[in-house]
Design goal:
Length: 417
């Protein structure tokens, strides 16, 4: 048994042998990676379990071919479950035929070969296996920044991507700059008695950090947008396990949301669900520093629309809606200085960030997608009052929580417009 380094172990069902042979060839010949695949590397008489465990221990990545033949198969599930248990970041699912993707795998969905020609498929494999490094999110504080607001350019993705995820009004460029996170002693005293003391402590101390430029969806993800994802990959619908009222619950039978809620924010989605959607859309979840940067800009304001409460600018308890409303209901009155809408109230929004105390440090592990622990939610909801919908308010929920008042919006990396 060899003990040398192995780049990729390829896991597949017997019915996907042709795909396994082709992927193995491309990885070896086109990408120069060392591979192990049972098409070539397992001999008659080999102890399958021992060989598999040896390969998983040595391999940098496990490539899992997903198709109707592989999803649910015992040996394939044993392989990816073992790899995921060791480190979710080592698992690279590759969809070769359209199939409902298990939720745990959809949260790490990096490559989709369905409908692609050979050059495009090779490019997708190259991206998934060799990676595209995300630019740092906290550069040195910049100087002048481009103007922002209602005329900020939309996300410059290609037409196929825009059609695919159907983002309402696209995404806005959030220029690089400084953001002041949290609250000072005076604001903490003002909040005393209005929100729980644990929430006050979680927002301290106030401090400034630098944030790189990025794109952020103007609105939270809507039911109509999430439905595109559900249909495209066969993902489970956010029906909430019976926790949602009739007004907002999706039907597991029809796989759709109630009539008239197209433009309402999707709810009852876990952090993993939100992450899966974002990756399918070509984006990611925003960090909490990015979220607060979009809400506050470079000002220190209490709410996205200013320091004074403005009636009609947010769907909070004061509005009396008793539920979600269309994502543009509070716009433009409730828009942030950077033109982002619906950041206060309506639904809490998942961020990529693990629950950690301030000061915020981007590189201390709190932004690791494969780390365990509660994830930050921001923005308040329709069932909470205005003091829970401030720019600085931060809470954290278990990433598996599919709460009836939690949604999300998508962020994108990309060059400035």
């Amino acid at each position: 048994m060899q003990a040398d380094r192995l780049d990729v172990f390829i896991s597949h069902a017997g019915g996907d042998r042709a795909w396994a042979e082709w992927v193995d060839f491309v990885l070896r010949k086109e990408l120069g990676l060392s591979t192990m695949c049972d098409v070539y590397d397992f001999a008659v008489g080999d102890n399958f379990v021992l060989r598999m465990n040896d390969a998983l221990a040595r391999a940098e990545r496990l490539v899992l071919l997903l198709s109707p033949q592989s999803v649910g198969r015992r040996f394939v599930e044993a392989e990816w479950s073992a790899a995921f248990a060791r480190s979710g970041g080592r698992l690279v699912p590759i969809v070769v035929e359209k199939v409902p993707v298990p939720p745990l795998l959809a949260a790490t969905l990096y490559a989709d070969l369905v409908g692609k020609d050979r050059p495009a498929a090779i490019a997708e494999l190259r991206r998934a296996l060799l990676g595209v490094q995300r630019p740092t999110r906290e550069p040195p504080l910049p100087g002048a920044r481009p103007p922002a607001g209602p005329d900020t350019p939309a996300f410059p993705g290609n037409a196929a991507q825009a059609t695919r995820c159907g983002l309402r009004d696209g995404a806005l460029w959030i220029p690089p700059g400084s953001v002041t996170l949290g609250i000072d002693a005076a604001e903490a005293k003002r909040l005393d008695g209005r929100i729980p003391s644990v929430d006050i402590r979680f927002q301290r101390p106030r401090h400034a950090v630098g944030v790189a430029g990025f794109y952020l969806a103007r609105y939270p993800t809507t039911n109509a947008e999430y439905w595109r994802f559900v249909e495209a990959v066969g993902y489970e619908v956010p029906w909430g396990g019976g926790t949602l009222g009739e007004r907002e619950a999706w039907s597991p039978l029809t796989r759709s949301f109630p009539d008239g809620l197209d433009d309402h924010p999707v709810v009852a989605v876990s952090w993993f669900d939100a992450l899966a959607y974002c990756r399918w859309a070509g984006g990611r979840l925003p960090t909490e520093a990015e979220w607060e940067r979009a809400a506050r800009g470079e000002t220190v304001r209490r709410w996205p629309f200013g320091d004074e409460w403005l009636s009609g600018a947010a769907n909070t308890l004061e509005a009396g809606s008793a539920g979600t409303v269309p994502v543009d209901t509070s716009s433009p009155a409730g828009d942030s200085v950077l033109g982002v809408a619906d950041l206060a109230g309506n639904v809490w929004e998942w961020c990529s960030t693990l629950r950690r105390a301030y000061p915020y440090e981007c590189g201390d592990g709190r932004e690791a997608d494969d780390a365990r622990g509660p994830r930050v939610i921001r923005g308040g909801d329709w069932a909470s009052d205005r003091w829970s919908a401030t720019c600085a308010m931060r809470r954290a929920n278990a990433p598996t929580d599919r709460g009836a008042t939690i949604g999300f919006r998508v962020a994108f990396d990309g060059p400035p417009p």
